[in-house]
């Protein structure tokens, strides 16, 4: 059962050798003359500015929280869209859709469509709320309106 | 062949790691990551059971809802952590000492 | 006889939930319209929404056919009806307490009410859910809402900290519960509680995995009812959160936990409710496990309350102890056990809200939170002191107050089974009642026996004083109608499989 993993193992070993061998080889034959420019991290020829461990702007977190509206939308619309095909012509295609779908024979395309529309309206209210409260603005006056987060 | 047991072992390992992180770490973001591991372990279980045991999409549908909940939970946690950070400049649970016996 | 209703057919039994969704949206939009954005209007809208929801719940048709809605997702039975009534009135009382509150500031009120209605929606669904997916989603819905509201006191470090601890450990416990549910689904091949019940009745629960699954599920539910060892969040959250929310959590969240407990464990595990037979776990005495847990919960709760100075913290421990008492009804595993749990929750609703009307008034309006602050309340505000005293006596279980009646039915149901574990739990429960006298009496002593030279005056608040009085009337006079009220809870204690 595990024999097929032998290929993976051999592949991994060869890959390791190919990566490690030049590093070791060059370390042995090259002259060692370190300077501060050589030791600095390479950033496409640019001179590095500041520390790599900077704190991200706190606004990214807010954007990340608002993003959930869209994530929910896509995640639930995708399965809906797959199933919707079976309901398109008023349930005619339902015989073709096997299994779980047979429970839903009473539903027609219009009802299925309206269900998704209601879901989208609820999400839209959430988005409108965020918009009206000014959380979609990147630069905003801190005094204006109540804040979402504090 | 990879079977159901492989998935179950993997998810059990994920669950244990997540539990361990939440129990031992005191950094808010770290604990949040542990929680995500726990929920994803459950997702793995659901999808594996759905594929190998039941053969229908019920478990996968369950997993979609769990993903959404995990995101919502993370959002609320982030909002609370941000609020604490802007008020007190701390994220570490051990440094929060307003409520004690 | 069970009847499966499809999506369209279910809608007419689902009006209360739809109504709540509508008002959540209205409350979110209301502050965005400048002319409508005053706190008075949000108060009015929230009260209107809840009165409407209460009407819809009470008008829900009683069915003999016991239909399940949405292809077996939700139950329409007595149990869900009882809990919906309890939840909707808890929320209504909470909103009324908050009308002139200051801990939740005026511009936060629309959000507060919208999220509170969301929590109520989650609790409605928890009480009715007949599917693991539905149960997990609804428990998370009301939990997530309560995490947000726990952090609602602005500029208060305690509130943020409470919310953070509540959320992290709460998510941990529901995560464990979800993991247990996945095993249950994997072993039985279905997420429907009735299918799981059939599977377990046919093939037994001999395998260890079922034990692990139910234990993990109990972690999640135990957290919600604050049973030992999942109780440690309660004192911190009670102390740090806005007082109105604490009042709500102490009654509704606990009741929702017990709703999920009864729904899940009784439906799946109990082969025959009237005779009280668990489908047994091999090599493991589940009844002994719950009994030990109940005893530990009561004892830890009461011992923890001893050295508390903050009254909200003290009530957190008191709530833990009462969760222990209610668990005694769950050991009994009989129909009488379920009935007595429901009846106890009803008495606890009146008693705890009467006490919290006073606590909210003092903590919210006057920032008085310690027992020292309560000195001489008997003179400064006789009505409030009287209401608090009666509800404290009721929490102790002094006859003939409501709390005594609740404990009486609970312990009677446990003793009737003649099971040694039940009897042991009742004995420990009685000892704990004696133990609890000490810390409840400390408050009463502070109110009536400690006199101040020049007690600071209290601004009167007609709404809260009125609520304290109205809520303590049933606490005092319930024994007149105890029989018929118990009959009412009995008539609602049936659920789909009983």
CATH architecture of the domain at 26-92 in chain B: Orthogonal Bundle
What is the rounded Rg of chain C? Answer: 22 Å
SSE pattern of chain C, N- to C-terminal: EHHHEEHHHHHHHHEEHHHHHHHHH
Q: State the name of the first-level CATH class of the domain at 26-92 in chain B.
A: Mainly Alpha
Q: Could you give the distance between the termini of chain C?
A: 11 Å
Please give the oligomerization state of what you see.
Answer: heterotrimer
What does this 3D model show about the protein?
The complex is a heterotrimer of chains A (150), B (101) and C (498). Chain A is mostly helical. Chain A has a domain at 59-132. Chain A contains five helices and no strands. In chain A, helix 4 runs antiparallel to helix 5. The relative contact order of chain A is 0.06. Chain B has 101 residues and is an all-alpha fold. Chain B is built from three helices and no strands. The model of chain B has no long low-confidence stretch (mean pLDDT 87). Chain C contains 20 helices and five strands. Chain C has helices spanning 7-10, 15-29, 39-58, 78-98, 109-128, 132-150, 157-188, 193-203, 208-224, 233-240, 243-269, 286-305, 311-332, 335-366, 377-380, 382-396, 402-416, 420-448, 462-477, 482-491; strands spanning 3-4, 67-69, 74-75, 270-272, 277-278. In chain C, helix 8 packs across helix 11 and helix 13 runs antiparallel to helix 18. Classes of the chains: A mainly alpha (150), B mainly alpha (101), C mainly alpha (498). At the B-C interface, helix 1, helix 2 and helix 3 of B face helix 6, helix 7 and helix 10 of C.
Comma- or semicolon-separated keywords:
heterotrimer, A: 150 residues, mainly alpha, flat, disordered C terminus, C: 498 residues, 3-stranded mixed beta sheet, two-stranded antiparallel ribbon, 20 helices, 5 strands, 72% helix, globular
Spell out the blueprint of helices and strands.
The complex is a heterotrimer of chains A (150), B (101) and C (498).
Chain A: H1 4-29, H2 36-39, H3 59-66, H4 68-87, H5 109-132
Helix pairs in contact in A: 4-5
Chain B: H1 4-24, H2 28-54, H3 58-88
Helix pairs in contact in B: 1-2, 2-3
Chain C: E1 3-4, H1 7-10, H2 15-29, H3 39-58, E2 67-69, E3 74-75, H4 78-98, H5 109-128, H6 132-150, H7 157-188, H8 193-203, H9 208-224, H10 233-240, H11 243-269, E4 270-272, E5 277-278, H12 286-305, H13 311-332, H14 335-366, H15 377-380, H16 382-396, H17 402-416, H18 420-448, H19 462-477, H20 482-491
Parallel strand pairs in C: 1-2
Antiparallel strand pairs in C: 2-3, 4-5
Helix pairs in contact in C: 2-3, 2-5, 3-4, 3-5, 4-5, 4-11, 4-14, 5-6, 5-11, 6-7, 6-11, 7-9, 7-10, 8-11, 9-11, 10-13, 11-13, 11-14, 12-13, 12-18, 13-14, 13-17, 13-18, 14-16, 14-17, 14-19, 14-20, 16-18, 16-19
């Amino acid at each position: 059962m595990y024999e097929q993993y032998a290929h993976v193992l051999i592949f991994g070993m060869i890959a390791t050798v190919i990566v490690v061998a030049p590093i070791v080889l060059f370390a042995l034959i090259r002259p060692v003359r370190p300077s501060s420019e050589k030791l600095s991290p390479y950033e496409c020829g640019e001179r590095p500015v500041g520390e790599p461990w900077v704190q991200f702007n706190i606004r990214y977190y807010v954007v990340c929280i608002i993003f959930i509206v869209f994530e929910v939308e896509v995640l639930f619309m995708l399965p809906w869209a797959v199933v919707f095909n079976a309901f398109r012509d008023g349930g005619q295609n339902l015989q073709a859709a096997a299994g779980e779908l047979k429970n839903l024979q009473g539903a027609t395309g219009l009802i299925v469509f309206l269900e998704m529309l209601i879901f989208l309206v609820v999400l839209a209210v959430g988005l409108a709320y965020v918009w009206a409260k000014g959380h979609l603005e990147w630069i905003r006056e801190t005094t204006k309106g109540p804040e979402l987060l504090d | 062949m990879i079977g159901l047991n492989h998935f179950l072992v993997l998810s059990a390992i994920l669950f244990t790691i997540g539990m361990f992180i939440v129990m031992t770490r005191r950094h808010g973001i770290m604990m949040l990551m542990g929680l995500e591991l726990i929920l994803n372990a459950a997702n793995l279980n659901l999808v594996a059971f759905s594929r190998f045991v039941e053969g229908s999409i019920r478990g996968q549908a369950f997993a979609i809802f769990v993903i959404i909940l995990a995101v919502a939970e993370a959002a609320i946690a982030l909002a609370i952590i941000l609020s604490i950070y802007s008020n007190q400049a701390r994220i570490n649970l051990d440094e929060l000492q307003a409520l004690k016996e | 006889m069970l009847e499966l209703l499809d999506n369209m057919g279910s809608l007419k039994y689902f009006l209360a939930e739809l109504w709540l969704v509508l008002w959540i949206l209205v409350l979110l939009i209301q502050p965005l319209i400048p002319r409508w954005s005053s706190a008075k209007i949000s108060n009015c809208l929230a009260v209107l929404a809840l009165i409407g929801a209460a009407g819809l719940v009470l008008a829900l048709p009683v069915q003999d056919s016991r239909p399940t809605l949405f292809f077996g997702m939700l139950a329409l039975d007595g149990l869900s009806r009882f809990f919906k009534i309890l939840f909707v009135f808890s929320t209504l009382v909470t909103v009324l307490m908050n009308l002139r509150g200051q801990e939740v500031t005026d511009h936060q009120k629309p959000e507060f009410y919208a999220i509170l209605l969301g929590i109520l929606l989650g609790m409605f669904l928890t009480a009715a859910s007949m599917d693991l997916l539905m149960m997990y989603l609804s428990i998370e819905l009301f939990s997530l809402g309560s995490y947000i509201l726990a952090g609602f006191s602005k500029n208060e470090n305690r509130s943020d900290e409470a919310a953070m601890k509540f959320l992290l450990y709460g998510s941990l416990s529901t995560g464990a519960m979800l993991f247990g549910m996945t095993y249950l689904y994997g072993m039985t091949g279905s997420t429907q509680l009735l299918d799981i019940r059939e599977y377990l009745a046919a093939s037994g629960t001999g395998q260890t995995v079922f034990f692990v699954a139910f234990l993990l599920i109990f972690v999640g539910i135990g957290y919600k009812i604050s049973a030992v060892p999942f109780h440690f969040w309660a004192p911190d959250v009670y102390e740090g959160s806005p007082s109105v929310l604490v009042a709500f959590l102490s009654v509704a969240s606990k009741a929702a936990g017990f709703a999920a407990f009864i729904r899940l464990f009784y439906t799946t595990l109990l082969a025959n409710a009237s005779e009280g037979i668990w489908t047994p776990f091999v090599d493991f005495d589940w009844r002994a496990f719950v009994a030990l847990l109940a005893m530990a919960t009561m004892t830890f709760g009461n011992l923890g309350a001893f050295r508390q100075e903050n009254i909200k913290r003290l009530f957190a421990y008191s709530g833990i102890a009462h969760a222990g008492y209610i668990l005694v009804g769950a050991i009994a595993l009989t129909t009488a056990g379920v009935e007595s749990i429901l009846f106890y929750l009803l008495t606890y609703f009146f008693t705890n809200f009467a006490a919290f009307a006073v606590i909210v008034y003092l903590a919210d309006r006057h920032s008085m939170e310690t027992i020292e602050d309560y000195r001489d309340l008997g003179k400064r505000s006789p009505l409030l002191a009287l209401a608090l005293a009666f509800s404290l006596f009721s929490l102790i279980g002094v006859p003939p107050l409501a709390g005594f009646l609740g404990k009486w039915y609970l312990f009677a149901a446990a003793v009737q089974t003649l099971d040694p574990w039940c009897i042991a739990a009742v004995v420990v429960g009685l000892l704990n009642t004696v133990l609890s006298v000490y810390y409840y009496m400390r408050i009463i002593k502070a109110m009536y026996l400690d006199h101040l030279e020049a007690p600071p005056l209290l601004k009167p608040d007609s709404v809260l004083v009125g609520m304290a009085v109205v809520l303590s009337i049933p606490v005092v006079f319930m024994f007149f109608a105890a029989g018929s009220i118990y009959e009412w809870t009995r008539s609602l204690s049936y659920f789909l499989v009983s």
